[in-house]
Amino acid sequence: MTRASLDGSRAVVTGSAGKLGPVWVGALLAAGADVTALVLEDTQDDVGLAKLADQYGSSLDILVADVSSRADLEAALVHMERKGGPPAVLVNNAGIDQPPVPGAGELLEHISATTFLRIVEVNTVGAFQAMQVVGAAMARAGHGSIVNVGSIYATVSPDMRMYDHLQTDPPFLKPPAYGASKAGLLNLSRYFATHLAPHGVRVNSLSPGGVMGTQDEQFLSKFSARVPLGRLARPDELVGPLLFLASDDSSYVTGIDLKVDGGFTAW
Ligand SMILES: NC(=O)c1ccc[n+]([C@@H]2O[C@H](COP(=O)([O-])OP(=O)(O)OC[C@H]3O[C@@H](n4cnc5c(N)ncnc54)[C@H](O)[C@@H]3O)[C@@H](O)[C@H]2O)c1
User: How far is the CA of 96 from the centre of ligand 1 (A)?
Assistant: First the structure.
């Protein structure tokens, strides 16, 4: 299949370590972009990124930046501009979720505002600041594409029965701030889409459903039964949708949420 080309472009991805960060970074590199992968300080030894560094050499540079620090994001932009100009693509991937941990249940009424606010600070405000800093530079250059990584839980609430086999007391709860922060991010994408459109910058969100990883068998089976396509996504199934939004293949697309969820939110 012919993929969109980003030859000669620079892209930046926030929170590039972990499960999906290297998927986005690898997709952009394979499409011909030079990529600046922003990582939190303690995640520089990420296996996925290390493999990409071996494969792509100087096309990938890895830089520490906490998205909750505007100063870090501004320093990252200065770094990229020294390397040849503002990025043409920004992927806001940095995010905090809470994977199900046996024994780590919590009563809804006990979840602290501090915990809630930290998730919003990274998932929503972090992307907001990155769009302010990088979006403004893209606007000055007259072109760019921003892709904000959302979630199905921006649209629907998690079904906690998917976790009841963990038998924690109190039950495991997916953090209430997670979906709220992603719903905020989707609307923020539309806000920036309208403001940056006159400057040639497009802004969209990409909302994955469940992606295959290290989930337990019972969760996989319950989740799959809830998906019209009957399974979770393979990580490589996120590549085409990302490159579509990042490249000129979507030159007339701005302000949308592209759901890559096997139909999860259609039911
Ligand atoms: N994995 C999935 O099934 C799935 C589904 C839907 C959406 N998502 C979204 O995709 C994105 C990546 O998820 P993942 O599964 O790879 O999670 P992950 O926990 O493996 O990766 C998240 C990354 O964000 C980084 N991060 C956290 N706080 C940060 C901060 N303050 N500044 C910079 N980076 C920070 C972490 O270091 C990590 O590299 C998240 O936004 C998540 O909400 C994931």
Answer: 6
